[in-house]
Amino acid sequence: MASDAIVVGGGVAGLVAARRLALGGRRVVLLERSDHLGGQVVALPIAGVDLDAAAESYATRGGAVAALAAELGLGDDLVTPTPAPAWLHRADGTAVPLPATGVLGIPGHPLAPDVVRAIGRPAALRAWADRLLPRRRGADAASLDDLVRARMGAGVADGLVAPIVRGVHSKEPRDLTVDTASPRLRAELAARGSLAGAVRALRAQAPAGSQVGGIRGGMHRLVTALARDAERLGVDIRTGVDIGRVTADAVEADGERLVGTVVRAFAEPADDQRRLTLVTLVLEAPALDAAPRGTGLLVAAGAPGIRARALTHLTAKWAWVAEALPGRHAVRLSYDGDPADPVGQATRDAATLLGVRIDSVLDSAVRTWDRGVRTPDDDIVSVGEGAAGTGLASVVAQAERTAAEVLTAG
Ligand SMILES: Cc1cc2nc3c(=O)[nH]c(=O)nc-3n(C[C@H](O)[C@H](O)[C@H](O)COP(=O)(O)OP(=O)(O)OC[C@H]3O[C@@H](n4cnc5c(N)ncnc54)[C@H](O)[C@@H]3O)c2cc1C
């Protein structure tokens, strides 16, 4: 069939690109291999409510996701999480609120009371000594772990940065390059002469307001709205397609050869993919009404008896989830790999982490995700995680940019 553009992959990136190309007047086919659209942004039906199975928020930086949602008529449903602190469950089994003025757990004010409370006075003093060190110390560190250890010591590296990086990036700090963790951190360190100074500078540059947002009813509403608008614009959306060879100007789909500008919106798995298991529980536990651990906790490595690496108290974090589950609580725990008996493990971990008795689990859902994609290195126009990096803010902005470039190229 005749088409101008063939988008392969129906996650958010593919849907954004297909819609933008159709808005630009192109005849577009979108091909999705699975039987549903959205990829990693997908509903999780539980206790009669559609929560999100993976991505449940977006970074507000850049404004691309909010602008797209507004274009799709979801502007009035953009929400921000409850401004309660997240907590840290420490290796000694106790919990403290996370220090407020950090970047990836690196404190901007190492002697602030919340930092001292989290890592103890000797470790906080060692971190403070960062300001006395030569500015070159750690400047060439390859990993975030090397940098933090060199400048602030093991207390900050193990006690604050590791649990946050594990919770946010699903990685160990030694496996995360400084530039991936925070692209401007190294330059600010060179300019300010200390890591704490660099962190304060980054915090000052961040726009006021919440760093993350969500959509009332779940991020998956973005997918429904994108698909509906793409169809309105005439995009030929096909799911359950058997995809064969993909080149820059043709795709084999269900044995048919489609010719046109190809936009690849899926990524090949990386060699070192990591499995992540998310366990969502809906609970009856009135003690949780007080949100004893704010919006949730990150867990330090070695915390006794705990296998989870993070817990999100969804009904404390999002007002819309609390409204949808009156008298009940939803929590989501994340695990590296595949825990045995995930619901039993998550119930035990939730009770310990939240410090409450859990008498009954009303409903539960377990989803696994294999994370880590390869960056494409061929001549096919590419959008999505492989080309943009992880996260909806990056993925949406890059898909919009790439579609605009395809339209300009003619
Ligand atoms: C557990 C988890 C939590 C997350 N939390 C957040 C969060 O809170 N905030 C945030 O911003 N981001 C979060 N993310 C990341 C975010 O969801 C992704 O970065 C984003 O959704 C990627 O979109 P994409 O379209 O590039 O890829 P995908 O969503 O992976 O879509 C790719 C699509 O291509 C299809 N496909 C694959 N191969 C082929 C093929 N050969 N032919 C045709 N189709 C194919 C797939 O079925 C899929 O539908 C999270 C991810 C996970 C897994």
pLDDT averaged residue by residue: 94
Oligomerization state: single chain
Runs in which pLDDT lies below 50 for 5 or more consecutive residues are none
CATH architecture call of the largest domain = 3-Layer(bba) Sandwich
Count of alpha and pi helical runs: 15
Total number of domains: 3
Helix content: 25-40%
* Ligand identities: flavin-adenine dinucleotide
CATH topology of the largest domain: FAD/NAD(P)-binding domain
Structural class: alpha+beta
**Under the CATH scheme, which class of the largest domain?**
Alpha Beta
Shape: globular
State the CATH superfamily name of the largest domain. FAD/NAD(P)-binding domain
Main sheet specs: 7 strands, mixed
Percentage of residues in strands: 25-35%
The termini sit apart by 20 Å
